[in-house]
Amino acid sequence: MEKNGYSVAINRDSPIPVYYQIELDLKKRITKGEWAIHQSLPSESELATQYDVSRITLRQALAELEKDGIIKKYRGKAAIINAVPSPFVHDLSYTLVSGRRMTQESYGKNTMTAKVLQLERLVSTFPEIHESLKLRDNEKVIYMKRLFLLDKKPIAIGKSWLPDSLVPKFAEDGLIDNSLSKTLVKRYGITPVRVEDYLDVVRPTQSEYELLRSTYDAPLILIKGISYLSDGRPVEYSQTAWLGDKVRFHFTLHHTDQGFVMGP
């Protein structure tokens, strides 16, 4: 369907809220260069007509764009383009080569930091964790929950479980330089050599919604991973929930005698 010459990309039968569809469509149009930085968007009434929605719905979409720093709104004026949407690119390849996971570091012009929300020793009651880490009955694990921020804005929530027997006093001593991989290597002499990751698309829980400051219907990309030592023992089971509209994943495959393998 076209409105004023624009092909409307709204699916009213979708469970995804209309305002969120508009937000994504406006991001796509800005990325394609329909409007340049510092250029004005069409007025609220024009955009509402294009998308055939109320101005209230349209304003919800614009509010999300403003929250992300993509536009700036001024009273009585059309919104101004402030930045072109650019999703954070997270490389899945490097974890298999160096064992490096997310920590405080720079990604191009962006800086990733992590905040530890919870760190404790406990007995897990989740079968998935028992099976993944090959735990004995009542064997204790270290549980760590972190909030990852990109340029001080929440982008992911990470949860890690490690066998307590492999990392004694971890809960008391914490992380070295806020890095799990560095802590494993320097304090315990542990270097994972293999990582198995599984990706799912999920909706946020109430806790994730609040921590990530996301819209409730915004999808999360959930990566579940198991890290192994050279002798095959699992050292970490992890779950990382990424904001689906803020991140893009990258990996490289190389051809070998055994077929294609992932690498940097």
Strand content: 35-45%
Structural class: alpha+beta
Gross CATH architecture of the largest domain = 3-Layer(aba) Sandwich
Largest sheet: 7 strands, antiparallel
GO molecular function: DNA binding; DNA-binding transcription factor activity
InterPro entries: Bact_HTH_transcr_reg, Chorismate_lyase_/UTRA_dom_sf, Tscrpt_reg_HTH_GntR, UTRA, WH-like_DNA-bd_sf, WH_DNA-bd_sf
Pfam family, one: UTRA
Protein name: GntR family transcriptional regulator
Would you write up a description of this structure?
Pfam families: GntR, UTRA. Keywords: DNA-binding, Transcription, Transcription regulation. One of its GO terms (molecular function) is DNA-binding transcription factor activity. By secondary structure, the chain is an alpha+beta fold. It has 2 domains: about 1-80, Arc Repressor Mutant, subunit A; about 90-264, Chorismate lyase, CATH 3.40.1410.10. It has 8 helices and 15 strands. It has helices spanning about 20-30, 45-50, 55-65, 95-100, 125-135, 170-175, 180-190, 205-210, and strands spanning about 1-5, 5, 70, 80, 90, 105, 110-125, 140-150, 155-165, 195-200, 220-230, 235-245, 245-250, 250-255, 260-264. The strands form 5 sheets. It has a 7-stranded antiparallel β-sheet with strand order 6-7-8-9-12-11-10. Strand 6 (about 105) and strand 7 form a beta hairpin. The longest helix has 14 residues, at about 20-30. The chain starts with a strand and ends with a strand. The model is unreliable at about 95-105 (pLDDT under 50).
